[in-house]
Amino acid sequence: MHRVVVTGLGVVSALGVGRDAHFAGLAEGRCGIGPIGLIDPARLMIKIAAEARDFRGEDRFDRQDLLLLDRITQMAVVAMDEAKAQSGIEFDEELGLRTATIIATAMGGLHTCDENYRTVYQEQKNRVHPFIIPRLMANAPVSQISMRHGLKGPAWSVSTACASSNHAIGQAFHMVRAGVVDAAVTGGTESVLCFGGIKAWEGLRVMSQDGCRPFSANRNGMVLGEGCAILILERLDRAIARGAPILGEIAGAGATADAADIVAPAVEGAARAMTLALADARIAPDEVGYINAHGTATALNDRTEAAAVRLALGEAASRVMVSSTKSMHGHAIGAAGALEAAAVLMALGQGIVPPTINHEAEDPEIGLDVVPNQSREAQVDAALSNAFAFGGLNAVLAFRRWKG
């Protein structure tokens, strides 16, 4: 069994393009939520989102690439390039055969679907472009990255709603730890910010019209976001041997199913996922310094998650810092866990715990230190990242600070 470390990270989010921009936004407590600009919001009830406004595929890809790449794949390719450059990893023929590519997306190429449904149904056209399927398929980001970098090991996409990224990263971690592969490219990418995507989420009636306020007593719903984060995982011995930068260690992963309700979360299932991640990592509850919460800012989710944290950590829950960075970068659905893993790596590596912004009123039912409104300097040696999905699917990652 090998120790597994993160040697590269690439990010596209509402806080900016690149991990430095993402980190700076988190540390500043900057809100990336604003008026929808990607589409005309006239027929939408919800008119705010956390768009990656600094990301324009037209500025980064030529016409031929744009014909093949949905927005989610564009973001994944850009984030992968950044992660690879930081890692300094070279995928020669031997390593390419022993590198896994496991990338999450809950909805696939939704922009492509939306545009072409409009072409067929609204514009009454009888033909679409021949590349529509290669653009919209959920494995497009995985396939494009594997082809561009010669990654010939195990490769697949993961789709488990809002837990997708944590499931993908957890699977990649287990493969590297078990020695099935020597390295893995993993993370998540998502953009549901098209007309049909936003309309579908409106139908659930879990969306806020005025902002994302996780754990605040006056919270009234989630705000959709978009983005991508790609992590490069390696065996520790290999990373040390080549002098790679080590951003943090993934020490454990836990996954459970509530087997209860298709949309309502369950305290026991979420708590059990945290407990399993801690056991897998051999981390005691009182060692956990920070939890990046799922924290969607719906009344039920935040209350349920707080209860799950108290159940999983016991007395230690009163001392742990718990924040929801969705307050800044929105809920990126299948990419949420990857963007939040980036926030955990910042906390571990830079000693800056990101805040829960827009926290306006304490909710006595939460009862946790939610790091309200301002980031906090603190040494964090162990951390959890929570992801709890519709369908009752829970995935939690456990991280350790790399001490050299």
Structure notes:
This protein has 2 domains: 4-241, Peroxisomal Thiolase, Chain A, domain 1; 251-400, Peroxisomal Thiolase, Chain A, domain 1 (3-Layer(aba) Sandwich), CATH 3.40.47.10. 36% of the residues lie in helices and 20% in strands. The chain has helices spanning 19-28, 63-68, 71-87, 93-97, 110-122, 132-136, 140-149, 164-177, 195-204, 236-241, 267-281, 299-313, 326-329, 336-350, and strands at residues 4-13, 16-17, 34-35, 48-49, 99-104, 155-158, 183-191, 226-235, 248-257, 290-292, 321-323, 352-353, 376-377, 382-389, 393-400. Strands 1, 2, 5, 6, 7, 8, 9, 10, 11, 14 and 15 form an 11-stranded mixed beta sheet that branches. Helix 12 (299-313) links the parallel strand 10 (290-292) and strand 11 (321-323). Helix 3 (71-87) runs parallel beside helix 7 (140-149), helix 8 packs across helix 14 and helix 11 (267-281) crosses helix 12 (299-313). The protein starts with a strand and ends with a strand.
Features:
404 residues, alpha/beta, Peroxisomal Thiolase, Chain A, domain 1, 2 domains, 11-stranded mixed β-sheet, two-stranded antiparallel ribbon, 14 helices, 36% helix
Helix and strand layout, with pairings?
Blueprint: E1 4-13, E2 16-17, H1 19-28, E3 34-35, E4 48-49, H2 63-68, H3 71-87, H4 93-97, E5 99-104, H5 110-122, H6 132-136, H7 140-149, E6 155-158, H8 164-177, E7 183-191, H9 195-204, E8 226-235, H10 236-241, E9 248-257, H11 267-281, E10 290-292, H12 299-313, E11 321-323, H13 326-329, H14 336-350, E12 352-353, E13 376-377, E14 382-389, E15 393-400
